[in-house]
Specification:
By secondary structure, the protein is α+β, with helices and mostly antiparallel strands. The chain folds into four domains: about 110 residues, PAS domain (Beta-Lactamase, 2-Layer Sandwich), CATH 3.30.450.20; about 160 residues, Reverse transcriptase/Diguanylate cyclase domain (Alpha-Beta Plaits); about 230 residues, Alpha-Beta Barrel (TIM Barrel); about 120 residues, Beta Barrel (Thrombin, subunit H), CATH 2.40.10. The chain has 21 helices and 36 strands. A hairpin with a 5-residue loop joins β4 and β5. It starts with a strand and ends in an 11-residue tail after the last strand.
């Protein structure tokens, strides 16, 4: 379309069209422009050669200049400086003095908000020289805000305002790609809410949504940065932590998250309690790409939930095998009762003032035909998840009652009750049936109930307690202080005893520990409510003496006896009044985990396979080398990049007790791990195995001549016959 000017009119169209020229005089053109401006469809502007305004539509002049006259004002002064170095900015295109279209600029509005404009311009020339611009400008603030809102909704969770799965995945992918080149670490946490479904199902989706919003707020407070927290969907959340690989700090953060989320919530006047489990994976150790890292964090989360919920777990290569082992164990557990593989052990509960046994706790053991004895810590979570706990729990209850009937004297038997069992409306009837069929007096049965049963307070829980107390049985609050502690339910629930969890006992004698004050407060509370107290897990005399000094009523732990089979228990009872003299170490030692695992030890560039016999926060017992002098320094390779500098403090034949230079930290599942790890890149460069443990001594970092020097000590002659597992 050609635009030309003839005899004072604008001519549109080609010369000599079939329908003739369509003429529009200047007055009508000006009228159309005014109508365009009045309808607020856009504005016109013009400048001189110096960029100063010679015209600006009235509406735009009011928005951009206020009450001042726009004429003579530099156009660029009306807009804010560009925020970034984009491809096209208004100063840039102005300097080029060429045509430009739809350049986006910003200005300050009267109400303090930012206005966005789309501006276009056409250069004008007079006798071949640049004479200024004629242009168009339009307010696009609403469009810009709408686009930003759409973009925000596409990348954020609409309920909580956190990043959504899509955004978090992109962030992880981008970060992992950049960090791989820079050899930097980053961590991710997957968080799953425990028992959220119960809240959603019993209190409604509106309450569930409100609860998720509060969880999101608590997560942001703990993490400290909203842009590092996402909601993946449902009750799953994810935290992203760049440049973080310190597992001590990560464990502390996971614990804070669990503690914060586990505090009570008040929603629409109703009180509800939930928990959280956390899985942690760190790149590049646990995965160098997004899918791998998230999968491994998910495996760690699954392990945390399987270990009893309300805890965290770091990923380890063992979890890949553990997932398959768990599936096999679940299948075998279905048939364990029918095959007679379950057995009850009994651990004495002793009155501290006179060492007299007044009761026992029934503890179930699984004698697997191929795997041997399996810890309850492994199979009870499987039983709870697969709903086998009801069947197993009823068997334990009935067997314990039947066994106790034949005991001389009035010893009580304590039986653990899972929250899943307690929630069953038929549970009181099962207890009544067990008492009736065995003939056991109700006062001799003590049901140990954890705080998990109070996640949903209400008439159902109260009715269950009333039914059980109506039977005449005793009730004990187990693991007090470790979960969802509240004085409110101590006021209403008819407990006869509070059991002090061993985690408080274990650290009570350590310097600057607050556990002693906590135990003293629990004892005072129990005395005020006319309840007994039992301290669990007492192993050393300093712990034992402290419990007596704090007036704890009963003591249970290795200081008196380990759990023993029923036959051995009966032999002890046959001697009459059962009094056990306490025995054990004088002082609490760091908790040592007994094990039999192949690892590696590095000394003078030699890598030796050894067996790890036990492990504590401060040291380990290794086996497989002889003639090792006290004071020898080792680097102990615990596998997966976990290298601990250590010194031999005790050496006897083929066993060495080593002390770590830096203490280990909790892995969140009752185990220990190093605070930092050596990256896979560094392990490969040093020629170290990434799994730990080799078949024979290996020389690391040989000299140019390739010679291997004779080490200062040698491998134990029975190494190859030790049968140490990998």
């Amino acid at each position: 379309m050609a635009i030309g000017k003839t005899r004072g009119v604008f001519r549109f169209g080609g010369e000599g069209g079939a329908r003739g020229d369509r003429l529009l005089d200047g007055a009508r053109a000006a009228g159309l422009c005014r109508a365009y401006e009045d309808l607020n469809l856009g504005a016109f502007w013009s400048t001189d050669a110096d960029g100063r305004l010679t015209y600006l539509s009235p509406a735009a002049e009011a928005a951009l200049c206020g009450e001042r006259d726009a004429r003579g004002v530099p156009l660029l002064d009306l807009f804010l400086r560009p925020e970034g170095e984009g491809e096209r900015t208004l100063p840039f295109v102005f300097a080029r003095k060429g045509r430009f279209e739809r350049v986006i600029v910003r200005s300050d509005g009267e109400d303090g908000r930012t206005l966005w404009w789309s501006i276009s311009g056409e250069p004008q020339t007079v006798r071949g020289s640049f004479a200024g611009f004629l242009g168009h400008v339009r307010d696009v603030t609403d469009e810009r805000q709408s686009a930003e809102e759409s973009s925000h909704l596409a990348m954020h969770d609409p309920l909580t305002g956190l990043l959504n799965r899509r955004h978090m995945t992109r962030l992880l992918e981008k970060t992992l790609t950049a960090f791989a080149l820079q050899k930097r670490a980053c961590a991710t946490m997957l968080i799953d809410l425990d028992r959220f479904k119960q809240v959603n199902d019993t209190m409604g989706h509106a309450v569930g949504d409100a609860l998720l919003k509060q969880v999101a707020e608590r997560l942001v407070r703990v993490v400290g940065d909203k842009e590092k927290v996402s909601r993946l969907g449902g009750d799953e959340f994810q935290v992203f932590l760049p440049d973080t690989d310190d597992r001590g700090l990560l464990g502390d953060l996971a614990t804070k998250i669990i503690t914060s989320i586990s505090q009570p919530y008040t929603i629409e006047g109703a009180r509800c309690l939930i928990g959280a489990s956390v899985g942690v994976a760190v790149a590049p150790f646990d995965g160098s790409v997004t899918d791998e890292l998230v999968r491994n964090a998910d495996l760690a989360l699954y392990a945390a939930k399987g270990s009893g919920r309300g805890r965290f777990r770091f990923f380890s290569q063992d979890l890949l095998k553990a997932a398959e082992d768990r599936r096999v164990l679940e299948e075998d557990l279905h048939d364990a009762l029918a095959r007679g593989e379950l057995e009850l052990f009994y651990q004495p509960v002793v009155r501290a003032e006179n060492n007299r046994v007044v009761g026992v706790e029934a503890l179930v053991r699984w004698n697997h035909p191929e795997l041997g004895s399996i810890s309850p810590a492994r199979f009870i979570p499987i039983a709870e998840e697969s709903n086998l706990i009801r069947v197993i729990g009823e068997w334990v209850l009935r067997r314990a009652c039947a066994d106790a009937t034949g005991w001389p004297g009035g010893l009580r038997v304590a039986v653990n009750v899972s929250p899943v069992q307690f929630a069953d409306e038929g549970f009181p009837a099962i207890v009544a049936s067990a008492l009736a069929s065995s003939g056991l007096h109700p006062d001799r049965l003590e049901l140990e109930i954890t705080e998990g049963v109070f996640l949903q307070e209400g008439c159902t829980t109260d009715a269950r307690f009333n039914s059980l107390k109506g039977l005449g049985v005793r009730l004990a609050l187990d693991d007090f202080g470790t979960g969802y502690s509240s004085l409110g339910y101590l006021k209403s629930a008819p407990f006869d005893k509070i059991k002090i969890d061993q985690s408080f006992v274990r650290g009570a004698t350590e310097d600057q520990s607050r556990n002693q004050a906590i135990i003293a407060a629990i004892v005072a509370l129990a005395q005020a409510l006319d309840m007994e107290t039992t301290a669990e897990g007492v192993e050393s005399f300093d712990q034992f003496d402290l419990m007596k000094r704090l007036n704890v009523t009963l003591v249970q732990g290795y200081i008196y006896s380990r759990p023993i089979p029923h036959e051995e228990f009966l032999r002890c009872l046959a001697e009459g009044d059962w009094v056990i003299e306490p025995s054990g170490p004088a002082k609490q030692r760091h908790y040592r985990q007994a094990m039999f695992r192949r690892i590696g030890a590095i000394h003078d560039n030699h890598y030796y396979p050894v067996v790890l016999r036990n492990l504590s926060v401060s040291g380990a017992l290794i086996e497989g080398l002889v003639e090792v002098p006290v004071g020898t320094e080792f680097v102990v390779d615990l596998g997966e990049g976990q290298l601990a500098v250590s010194t031999v403090r005790r050496s006897r034949k083929s066993q060495q007790g080593v002390e770590f230079e830096h203490a280990l930290v909790s892995d969140g599942n009752g185990g220990l791990c190093t605070r930092h790890r050596v990256s896979p890149y560094q392990l490969a460069a040093a020629g170290l195995p990434q799994g730990g443990g080799q078949e024979g001594p290996t020389m690391l970092g040989r000299g140019e001549d390739g010679k291997i020097t004779m080490p200062a000590f040698v491998m134990s002659s029975d190494w190859k016959g030790s049968g140490a597992p990998g």
